[in-house]
Amino acid sequence: MTKNEAITELATTFNINLIYAHRVFSLADKTNLIEDSSRIIAEKPKPFVKWVGGKRQLLAQFRLMNLYPPEKFNIKNGKYFEPFVGGGAVFFDLLPERAHLSDLNHELVVTYNIIKSDIESLIKSLKKHKVDKEYFLKIRSRNPEDLSDLDIASRFIYLNRTCFNGMYRVNSKGKFNVPFGKYTNPLICDEDNLRKASKALKNVEIKKQDYKEVLKKAKRGDFVYFDPPYYPASKTASFTSYTNKSFLDKEQIELRDVFVKLHKRGCFVMLSNSDTLFINKIYSGLEGVRITKVQANRAINSNASKRGKISEVLITNY
Ligand SMILES: C[S@@+](CC[C@H](N)C(=O)[O-])C[C@H]1O[C@@H](n2cnc3c(N)ncnc32)[C@H](O)[C@@H]1O
Known about the structure:
Layout lengths: L2 H12 L3 H10 L5 H10 L13 H9 L15 E3 L6 H6 L4 E5 L2 H12 L1 H8 L6 H9 L7 H14 L28 H10 L3 E5 L5 H4 L5 E4 L22 H17 L2 E7 L2 H7 L6 E9 L9 E9 L2
Parallel strand pairs: 1-2, 1-4, 2-3, 4-5
Antiparallel strand pairs: 5-7, 6-7
Helix pairs in contact: 1-2, 6-9, 6-10, 7-9, 12-13
The structure holds S-adenosylmethionine.
The site of S-adenosylmethionine has 21 residues, from loops.
């Protein structure tokens, strides 16, 4: 059996994507491939924060539709870029050895970097937190600008685990303002998963920057996944406050232009957004670009009657 055949067999046997299958193959003991791969796969980390718009549930659908990962993308030659990384559901699914992750959320990026470089101090700090409304409000009121990077990461994970619905929302001054979540027993310090995530991030670059910076680095053959703040499905349903900047018509058109530039450069480009008239309009009629509709479960609406399946689009150039 050739190396590529063995990798494809791993992908089928364990129902994993081909990029991750490459990594598993390179780490596994080749004399005992299946058993050792099974041990490695059991050690796979999950995203360490809950993030609104997380893509985990949709990945299986994308894969069944043969839209993800791009079949011709070769991880040995190309790099993976995720310029709106958020909780990193797609990164943690692919686990490419070399990747560029970025986001505009400063505290999130600091947290990724602390997990990567100072995991044991972070675990120690997370173990000191308490689940109590008064304590939550005290931690929430702290200004991240006055904190060390370690304290920013510890506060960020603590608030994410104990706030209402694990949401991240800031007010117009950029201050986190989600209320206490009243969970009975939230797991604030999932040390096992955090250590696995730390290992997975070892060769990964994580920066705070605008998504447009991807244009400076991505080359022909690289794979870029964009998961921007979604265009609102209706005027009242706008949940785009990850940062205190809006991401509406003008910003979506600028993003479309970045998509087209990368497409022309020969990158593999994949982008998620809401299935709205506006998004369908700005991506239609582009040569070589496909719009596919997918159904997602959305549980973020606090009004239970409004939860349910909503239609999203996946836009690809391959
Ligand atoms: C829909 S979320 C991404 C969710 C992510 N795919 C996941 O699985 O959790 C959008 C992300 O874009 C970030 N963001 C907003 N505007 C940005 C910009 N101009 N450049 C880079 N990131 C931005 C937000 O901070 C947020 O984390």
